[in-house]
């Protein structure tokens, strides 16, 4: 465990599966003296260093927010929840990109983004194309370090239990050991492992753009505690 450096982190998406675990990691990490949670509904933490800000992401550019060192983005929805492809794109592309631009304006050095395995701006798949377009747009911003995490199927407790999704997770957990070579990136991964790798990546204080697939995320976790 490193001594506190008095750093400030922003976190968007704290009510989601990965974001919830990121919040726990940031609270536990002594690197951060302040964690600014940007949310559309509050999260009961009872922790003094957590500063909750209820935000409208459509108006993020005009909000008065404290300067940040590291910004963690775990925003995301599903097309079913969003109601349409247009609404999905607004949440999964427009909101994270607005956050990255706001982070740059508030002097953040690092932006850490949850994307998806297979993200590709030229994909025929709408979901993967949207994720890929976001990855490219964020990568063009002049931030010191951009960390993009591309997990496969996420394993962990969800508020909503969908039968098809449960079946898919069970299948992928069973199939994961058989995914070798170039297919390893599609292995199912615990959401808490993605979150932990994000906080560990921030601790490296690197530069440039880094893409994290399954193997690199797991290697970070094996590297030791935050």
Could you please describe the fold and organization of this structure?
There is one protein chain. The protein has 226 residues and is α/β, with parallel strands linked by helices. Helices cover 38% and strands 19% of the residues. It has helices at 17-28, 79-82, 85-105, 126-139, 163-175, 191-204, 214-222, and strands spanning 7-12, 32-39, 50-54, 70-73, 110-114, 145-149, 154-155, 189-190, 208-212. α1 links the parallel β1 and β2 (32-39). α1 crosses α6 (191-204) and α3 packs parallel to α4. The radius of gyration is 17 Å and the shape is globular. The termini are close together.
- Approximately how much beta-strand content do the residues carry? 15-25%
Helix-strand sequence: EHEEEHHEHEEHEHEH
The share of residues in helices is 25-40%
* Main sheet summary: 7 strands, parallel
Descriptors for this entry?
226 residues, alpha/beta, two-stranded parallel sheet, 9 strands, globular
Secondary structure blueprint with pairings:
Layout: E1 7-12, H1 17-28, E2 32-39, E3 50-54, E4 70-73, H2 79-82, H3 85-105, E5 110-114, H4 126-139, E6 145-149, E7 154-155, H5 163-175, E8 189-190, H6 191-204, E9 208-212, H7 214-222
Parallel strand pairs: 1-2, 1-4, 2-3, 4-5, 5-6, 6-9, 7-8
């Amino acid at each position: 465990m490193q001594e506190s450096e008095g750093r400030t982190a922003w976190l968007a998406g704290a009510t989601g599966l990965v974001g919830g675990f990121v919040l726990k990691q940031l609270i536990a990490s002594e690197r951060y003296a302040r964690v600014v949670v940007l949310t559309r509904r509050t999260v009961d933490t009872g922790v003094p260093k957590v500063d909750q800000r209820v935000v409208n992401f459509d108006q993020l550019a005009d909000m008065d927010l404290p300067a940040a060192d590291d910004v963690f983005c775990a925003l995301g929805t599903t097309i079913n929840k969003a109601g349409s492809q247009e609404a999905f794109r607004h949440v999964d592309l427009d909101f994270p990109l607005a956050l990255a631009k706001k982070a740059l304006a508030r002097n953040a050095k690092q932006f850490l983004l949850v994307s998806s395995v297979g993200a590709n701006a030229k994909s025929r798949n709408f979901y993967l194309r949207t994720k890929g377009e976001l990855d490219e747009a964020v990568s063009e911003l002049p931030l010191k370090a951009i960390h993009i995490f591309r997990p496969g199927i996420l394993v962990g407790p969800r508020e909503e239990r969908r039968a098809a999704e449960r079946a898919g997770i069970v299948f992928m957990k069973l199939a994961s050991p058989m995914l070798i070579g170039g297919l390893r990136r599609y292995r199912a991964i615990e959401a808490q492992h993605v979150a932990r790798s994000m906080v560990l990546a921030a601790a490296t204080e690197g530069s440039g753009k880094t893409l994290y697939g399954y193997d690199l995320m797991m290697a970070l976790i094996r590297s030791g505690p935050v």
